[in-house]
Amino acid sequence: MDSVLSKLPKQSDPNVLVGFDTADDAGVYCLAPDLALVQTVDFFTPIVDDPYTFGQIAAANSLSDIYAMGGRPLTALSIVGFPNSGRDPAILEEILRGGLDKMREAGCTVIGGHSIGDEEIKFGYAVTGVISPQRIWTNAGVKAGDRLILTKRIGTGIIATALKKGQASDQSVKAAIDSMGQLNRAASEVGLKFNIHAATDVTGFGLLGHAREMAVASQVSLVMDAAQVEFLPGALEYSRQGHLPGGLKRNIEFVSGCVEFGGDVPEEVRNLLYDPQTSGGLLLAVSPADSARLLEALSAHGVQAHEIGYAIEKTRPLIWVQLSNQGSRG
């Protein structure tokens, strides 16, 4: 997609505060000195069998980009692809019901949408929110010394692949579903009370892919501690068994040239750091003085976040991944 977008003519509008040329999570358009719109769209095919649960996850995933920018969602338009025949319409009703319930939880009003006949079910939302022009979180604000905070465990892609092969336990599947259905609302609202310099949500590019976007945009390098990254139950074992989604392999191809690992970081852990996530957590870059207090505040609001690394002046490699028992880099 980057190669395609780079060939399109550049737009010129001084009210566009964040556009598609910066690999950020959403676009931001200024309406007034103290008010801007933040807009995003996301949809995908079912990743769970239960239609209601799929609707909830799709809604949480669509809302996540608004939260990752530091915005507050207001309205949403549904996007639906559903077969014209051969599928029970009750399935679509349950998908829409799940999405609507999650949007209500977020305080976001669904005001319409569009549907097409499609052989493969697809569902998601275009979401519009509001944001302060002075408090926009982008990929580009990371400063050397900033601490990296991750607000959800990872491993949804590997667990989903293990599930398709009949190898995932009920415990793993439930944990993954609960994580994907959890809004990033609390993490975002708590983060706005602290000195967050940059943020993104961890989705299809995996943790390392989204970390790369932040490092490139901010012109810094990142040191990550794999021992501090929390994995969903069973994900490590499924990774060890080789239940790797196709998206993980594409992420390795895309990111591996700018990532180096300490020799003690095992292959199953490396895979998880590349694992594509659905409705993953926020990756926040916060000033060192605020890191401990932010973690404490997140915990008080039910968000089990962890400090997983820090930023340094730009060097090679762009991202260095180590274990806690290895020497510090930078």
What does this structure look like?
The structure is a single chain. By secondary structure, this protein is α+β, with helices and mostly antiparallel strands. The chain has two domains: 2-131, 2-Layer Sandwich (60s Ribosomal Protein L30, Chain: A), CATH 3.30.1330.10; 139-322, PurM-like C-terminal domain (Phosphoribosyl-aminoimidazole Synthetase, Chain A, domain 2, Alpha-Beta Complex). It has eleven helices and 13 strands. The strands form two sheets. A seven-stranded mixed sheet has the order 8-11-7-12-9-13-10, sandwiched between helices. β1 and β2 form a beta hairpin. The two termini are 33 Å apart. The mean pLDDT is 95.
Describe the secondary-structure layout.
Blueprint: H1 2-5, E1 16-18, E2 27-32, E3 35-44, H2 51-68, E4 72-82, H3 89-106, E5 109-117, E6 122-131, E7 147-150, H4 156-164, H5 170-181, H6 185-191, E8 196-201, H7 206-218, E9 220-225, H8 235-240, H9 246-255, E10 259-261, H10 267-274, E11 282-286, H11 288-300, E12 306-313, E13 319-322
Parallel strand pairs: 4-5, 9-13, 10-13
Antiparallel strand pairs: 1-2, 2-3, 3-6, 4-6, 7-11, 7-12, 8-11, 9-12
Helix pairs in contact: 2-3, 4-5, 7-9
- Helix count, per DSSP? 11
- At the fourth CATH level, what is the homologous superfamily of the largest domain? PurM-like C-terminal domain
Order of helices and strands: HEEEHEHEEEHHHEHEHHEHEHEE
Going by helix content, strand content and strand pairing, the class is alpha+beta
Binned, the helix content reads 25-40%
Global outline: globular
Cα distance spanning the termini? 33 Å
What is the name of the CATH class of the largest domain? Alpha Beta
The counted number of beta strands is 13
Biggest sheet character: 7 strands, mixed
The overall number of domains is: 2
CA-based gyration radius: 19 Å
Unreliable segments (pLDDT under 50, ≥5 consecutive)?
A: none
Main sheet strand line-up? 8-11-7-12-9-13-10
Whole-number mean pLDDT: 95
Strand content: 25-35%
